[in-house]
Specification:
Length: 394
């Protein structure tokens, strides 16, 4: 699952669409709640906001950055089905002596939770997962929407290591034309000394824990995306391969499920440890699953089958998850879907104290250029806005 930020071929891109002012203002003096389409002003506070997706009064009079993100067409059908989709993003920021905080709001028509949901196909008598990308017929007509999750990404320059970052931001590490084996497009930096900090929120995989996946990019080719070091936790595909005893065939099936539960989108490690989630130990030629304490027979049971545009109420989640600890969990982020879009709050230490050179350091309150990506029910296709600027009001 790669994050891809680019326009046309390799690093020879038409960056004229991503220009910025050469002259930066050293002093910002707002006259009320100012609005900018480029600069995000972080104001000093003594009252830290709660990171709960609720807009508190402390946010009301802060300057706003209001911009429009658009999904580009990088070629090779990489963003097929999403090109041209656009979303308005509003950002506000504050900081105190320890942390920086962000409030990010963006429009989104759907609360996308059905990530690669497991269902039973009565025609094949096998379990399968819905596609995380739209499905098309031979004529190129979309026949089924993607089954994925909403996501948000923010990219920062670590220790000013990335050449031309202030004029390119997230485009600086995007590479296209890499061929099918390499996913056509990937992110990696252009030298061993360059590092990019990447905060990546994934609704289904991270949402339950109130964190963003703290990642970074280096010059490993073709895929320079890495996760920060962790102590424990993270998410795992809820998938295993079992052998049908009567035929000897190997098939993919879910690893865990929760009997009797409807409309759930992830399984936690705590539910596994408590025995609430059951380990599936066998499958037969009809798709009947055996688990400790019983059997799940999906034949003739529409609850586990496709139902129109979706899946039945007892489709099984694609992941199980445990809260990550360590540097990978440094960024707190919590989102609330309000029916028409996301209200998302972020908290991170100005200086995480990392010794791995994988986090941006805000402690000196210097200007920081950044780029954002909004994913609406998409694996990699995202609406992009580059060359935004965070400025700390001292």
């Amino acid at each position: 699952m790669a994050l891809v930020l680019f326009l046309g071929g390799r690093m020879v891109l038409d960056f004229m669409a991503c220009t910025h002012d050469d002259q930066l203002l050293d002093i910002y003096t707002p006259t009320g709640p100012a609005v900018s389409d480029k600069e995000l002003i972080a104001e000093k506070t003594t009252a830290a906001p709660a990171i709960d997706g609720v807009v508190e009064a402390a946010w009301d009079n802060l300057p706003k950055l209001v911009t429009r993100t658009v999904v580009p067409d990088p070629g090779d059908n990489v963003f097929r089905g999403y090109v041209g989709d656009a979303y308005t993003v509003t950002m506000r920021s504050m900081y105190d002596n320890e942390n920086v905080y962000f409030l990010i709001e963006w429009d989104d028509p759907t609360n996308s939770l059905e990530r690669n949901t497991w269902y039973f196909d009565p025609a094949t008598k096998k379990w399968a997962q819905e596609s995380g990308a739209p499905t098309y017929n031979a004529q190129g007509v979309k026949t089924r929407d993607a089954f994925y999750e909403d996501k948000l990404a923010i990219l920062w320059n670590i220790n000013n290591t990335v050449a031309n970052w202030n004029s390119t931001t997230c485009y600086s590490s995007c590479h296209t034309g890499l061929g099918q084996a390499n996913g056509y497009a990937r992110h990696y930096t252009n030298s061993a000394t360059e590092r990019i900090d990447m905060w990546h929120w994934k609704l289904v995989r991270d949402g339950v824990w109130g964190i963003m996946d703290d990642q970074y990019q280096d010059n490993t080719q073709p895929n320079g995306r890495k996760s920060d070091p962790k102590v424990s936790g993270s998410y795992t595909d809820n998938k295993q391969t079992l052998t049908i005893a009567s035929t000897g065939a190997s098939v993919s099936v879910p690893k865990y499920f929760i009997p009797g539960r409807d409309f759930y989108y992830w399984i936690t490690k705590a539910e596994i440890d408590a025995g609430t989630a059951k380990l599936i130990t066998a499958v037969d030629e009809n798709g009947v699953l055996t688990y400790d304490g019983g059997a799940l027979d999906p034949t003739g049971n529409p609850d586990f089958q496709r139902a129109g545009a979706g899946v039945g109420p007892k489709g099984i989640p694609s992941i199980y998850t445990e809260k990550v600890t360590g540097n990978r969990g440094d960024v707190n982020g919590f989102g609330f879907y309000n029916g028409s879009g996301w209200v998302f709050e972020i908290k991170r230490k100005l200086n995480t104290g990392d010794t791995e050179n994988v986090d941006v350091n805000f402690a000196d309150l210097s200007d920081q250029y950044f780029g954002i990506g909004v994913f609406e029910n998409a694996q990699i296709a995202h609406a992009i806005k580059a060359n935004l600027l965070l400025k700390f009001k001292r």
